[in-house]
Amino acid sequence: MKRLMTFALLCAALFCFAFAASAADEGALVAVAFRGDTSAYPPNSLGAIEAAFDAGADYVSVSVQKTADGAFVLLEDRALSVQCDAEEGEISSLKLSDVQKLHLKNLNGTVSHEPVATLEEALAAAAGKGGLILDNAWAYRDELSAFFGSRSAVIPVCIRTVASAKHALQWQQESGTVVSVLPVYRGNVVFNAIAHWNRLQTANMPLVQFQSKNYFNVFYQKFTAKRFHANSRVSALAPTYDPILCGRRPDDATGWDDLISRGFSAIETGNIRSLAAYIRQTQTERAALEALIDQAEAVPHVKGAALEEAYLTAIDTHAEKRASLSQLQSAESALQSELRLLTPVGENEPRPGDWQVTLGKIIVIVIFGALLLGFDVFVYKKKKKA
Known about the structure:
Elements: H1 2-25, E1 30-34, H2 46-55, E2 59-66, E3 72-74, H3 80-83, H4 96-99, E4 103-105, E5 111-115, H5 119-126, E6 131-135, H6 141-149, E7 157-161, H7 165-175, E8 180-185, H8 190-202, E9 207-210, H9 222-228, E10 235-239, H10 253-261, E11 266-269, H11 272-297, H12 305-319, H13 325-341, H14 359-385
Parallel strand pairs: 1-2, 1-11, 2-6, 6-7, 7-8, 8-9, 9-10, 10-11
Antiparallel strand pairs: 2-3, 4-5
């Protein structure tokens, strides 16, 4: 029986890791929706979780709280009045049956029709679609480990913590849990950042998180970011939902593009729909770049250092599974420009930049000539009368 349980835990862990690795193998960036899709639903609500996965999220991060009777529900804070249509009080003073009668508030403070969701419901919503990142859960890690271990449906689950990577991984390994850990690195020492990365990479954790309010923090530097690309199985996570946590970068395409170009391959956003659109655009650009590379390879005799340089850059950029949109667009533009210069033309065919005679241009010239002639006749008659 003990061997069977160990085998089951191993299979579950491999499943969680394989899910995270699949996005990397496909060359896709990892999209994390902070508290779900909050554009139309309250944070941590079941509707927000389902909408986020439908929009294209790979993970949804939620905050966990515990009721008086030991049930796990999704709430940001213990104080109920801040998040629900409830009087003053804390979640720990109510049983699950009472909590489920409450309704969550939207970001603008209005009360929604969404009831407080349970962790069980969140698991069901994520099944077959993606994974969950649990905040405020480290204090309940042993109970949560038992909770997930008793469920037949296995999905990728990470417990985020400010505990050190060493401490978090020690618990993860000693408990034999199917749950991954996501310790956050907040320092500014390059050797410590790389050591943090290496520990989690060696343990086959799906995500590695770095955060800082300093725009120039060491892990935002290109030479550090190269380590993030050393193993495509692990995704370096940047929490852009709060600018303070990502070097004051905006939670939009500009901020995402900058972080991705620096080596980050997972973005946790408060605007999952826009991030999903950005990722789709990178996939479109990648396909366009691949078509240009094929076109360049079909040229029988490639001449010129500029074309060769553009071609090699395009090859390298396309090979980078998690290149940013701007990197893909830049490589595509450079290669396309060089290919246009090599387009063969016949003796009587116009070359790029040559002036071409068209019917429209002829009409414009005729009209302009007629106006000049009319003006000359007008001036001549005026002079003759004088």
